[in-house]
Task: inverse folding
């Protein structure tokens, strides 16, 4: 859900909650349940802009109160005059909360309670001053004590509801993880069956290679010429059988993926957390000191998380390989227009200018072990390019400078990752 939509929906919730209120002894002063819902939503959705949310909630309160009074008393400017100071409460609350939260390290329950009480009191004092003017300072401590009591009650309610929300969310996450673990066990057991057939065919392939080499030797030495055609036909039949076996394996694996991997999605911040931890482990395994930094940007939910993980991981693994012993990898995300933009940057050795046009070609690789002659198969970036272009209808570009590092910029339409238009 986008931030603007959260502000809009949250403001409507606050407006509706404002219809549940009790009257204070000051004329037209009301304590409503909206005073609890407003901070609760700010704590739950920490990406909400408190000031924008305060303005939206104040306007929403005016709207719903007007509708309520219009049904029973008729709409009048006098009702606006009576209600307007209460809408100021939420604007002041949003401003004060914004200032306090900028300096807060973490939101413990004690801090939530103290901030809620203090912000509630400050906002109520502003509202009371708008209603009473200087008369507020001549009424003694009675109003102050009442406002403090209300702040304590609403602060306690906010803490309680935040606690319930957090425990409920932990319960859902635990339940979801257990379900994923069960699915993973079943998935692995099915993949084990397909792997068995692949291992069995490895022996078959070695026999075919042996027969092909024997035929090559016979032809080179002009030996057993009468059997050349028969042996070549036998090799062709064996290769055809291997092809059929692997076609069945591929079909089986595709069925597994379709049934087990496409039934649920994931939030981007969860995906990025898993990716960051796996990359840090990989860097340690390679005895490299690499700092991995991740910026979620605007969080979103996607059912194409396997594709997205494959894309980001393949590029980031190349970044790890490009760093000698110490460096940094940064993965960032932002939403621009109708696209998700992902950037993976590293300060590794970079890519030669002449190599840049070829890095997405299948089989291309600069990773050669000169001591053994072995070469990396070079399919990582080719697969990335294929997934982005064919499956997600996106694009990828790379910028690199030798000795300074590389930067991969990926653009994927929002509808492809989220299934909706924004």
Result:
């Amino acid at each position: 859900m986008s931030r603007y939509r959260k502000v809009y929906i949250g403001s409507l919730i606050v407006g509706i909650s404002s219809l549940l209120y009790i009257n204070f002894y000051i004329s037209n002063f009301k304590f409503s349940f909206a005073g609890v819902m407003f901070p609760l939503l700010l704590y739950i959705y920490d990406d909400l802009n408190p000031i924008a949310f305060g303005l939206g909630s104040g306007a929403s309160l005016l709207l719903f109160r007007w509708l309520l009074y219009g049904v029973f008393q008729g709409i009048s400017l006098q009702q606006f005059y009576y209600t307007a100071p209460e809408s100021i409460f939420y604007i002041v609350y949003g401003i004060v909360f914004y200032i306090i939260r900028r300096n807060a390290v973490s939101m413990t329950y004690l801090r939530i309670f103290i901030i809620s009480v203090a912000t509630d009191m400050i906002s109520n004092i502003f509202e009371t001053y708008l209603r009473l003017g200087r008369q507020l300072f001549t009424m003694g401590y009675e109003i102050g004590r009442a406002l403090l009591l209300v702040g304590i009650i609403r602060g306690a309610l906010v803490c309680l509801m935040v606690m319930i929300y957090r425990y409920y969310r932990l319960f859902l996450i635990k339940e979801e993880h257990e379900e994923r673990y069960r699915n993973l066990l079943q998935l692995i057991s099915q993949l084990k069956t397909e792997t068995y057939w692949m291992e069995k065919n490895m022996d078959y392939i070695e026999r075919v290679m042996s027969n092909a080499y024997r035929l090559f030797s016979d032809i080179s030495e002009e030996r057993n010429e009468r059997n050349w055609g028969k042996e070549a036909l036998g090799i062709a039949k064996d290769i055809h059988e291997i092809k059929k076996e692997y076609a069945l394996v591929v079909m089986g694996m595709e069925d597994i993926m379709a049934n087990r991997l496409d039934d649920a999605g994931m939030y981007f911040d969860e995906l990025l957390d898993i990716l960051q931890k796996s990359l840090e482990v990989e860097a340690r395994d390679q005895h490299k000191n690499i700092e991995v930094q991740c910026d979620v940007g605007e969080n979103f939910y996607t059912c194409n998380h396997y594709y997205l993980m494959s894309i980001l991981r393949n590029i980031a693994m190349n970044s790890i390989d490009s760093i000698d012993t110490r460096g940094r990898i940064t993965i960032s995300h932002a939403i621009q227009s109708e696209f998700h933009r992902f950037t993976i940057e590293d300060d590794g050795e970079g890519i030669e200018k002449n190599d840049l046009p070829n890095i997405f070609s299948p089989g291309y690789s600069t990773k050669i072990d000169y001591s053994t002659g072995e070469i990396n198969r070079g399919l990582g970036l080719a697969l990335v390019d294929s997934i982005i272009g064919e499956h997600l209808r996106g694009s990828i570009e790379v910028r690199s400078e030798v000795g300074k590092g590389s930067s991969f910029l990926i653009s994927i339409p929002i509808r492809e990752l989220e299934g909706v238009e924004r």
